[in-house]
Amino acid sequence: MAKGKKQRDPKRSQIQLRRLKPHPQQAELFDELPPAELKAMAIDMATNGLQHAIDVMPDFTILRGHKRVAAAKSLGWKTIEAVIRHDLVGEPLEGVVNFVITDNLLRQQLGPLAVARCFQMEQALSRTGNRRQFATAGGDLRDRLAKRYGLSGRQMQRYVELLRLPRVLQAAVDQGRLPMTLAARLLNSSHEQEVADAVEAGADPKVAAKEALGSANGSPPLKPLEELIWILGRKLPRLELDQAPLIKSDYQRKVLVRMRKFINQILSSSSKRK
After folding, report:
1. pTM over cut 0.70
2. What are the sequence ranges of the domains in the chain?
3. Was domain 12-90 assigned CATH 2.70.150.10?
4. How confident is the model at residue 64 (pLDDT cuts 50, 70, 90)?
5. Are 69 and 78 in contact (CB under 8 A)?
6. Are 56 and 20 in contact (CB under 8 A)?
């Protein structure tokens, strides 16, 4: 180890729960545990004690162990065992976030959209921070990062597109309560907020989505042409973003505007027929 490099403090310390702070990216990347799972974790901790100390920065920002802290608070604990990570002081943001993401990937089964949020965060940090491990490797940044999560770039992009849904519907997808096929159809409907409100009020996500989309009333599946238009409507915003540097003339811009208008008209008329 290089001289002067700060080492991880192997000592465990009892830290008062009231002094702990959540990591700034925690809520952005990960959903809270459902009440039933939090209760199960609390029961296990009450029975068997804390099996793994949490990790915190010297200022008591939690790096890993947010869910264990939540369970400890629900039990009325005043303190919790923690490892203070002096070795991460002064690390660039992408290094600390990478630590948080890697821990969650190893310790729990993340849902597809939690994975997509982690990927999106790492992608943004990689572009701004010029991380060496990705800058020196060949190929597309998206594909290289997606491989870290065991997915292809195209698979990851499908997950990322679903991050346009309200967060409550993203959580429903991750919990297996809303099929990804239904979630994808909600993206280009005018019902996503309506369904999100219903889910927050206690409705079953799958049933609410089907009712909003008309599927519960026996509406026929999309015809091939309608399916193609629906896919184009979903892909066009991304296409416009990716191809923006290549659009040089007013004619090209007008073509894209006309395409968007045409697709929106067909989607609107198709929705009214249902």
Report:
1. no
2. 12-90, 109-162, 179-219, 222-274
3. no
4. confident
5. no
6. yes
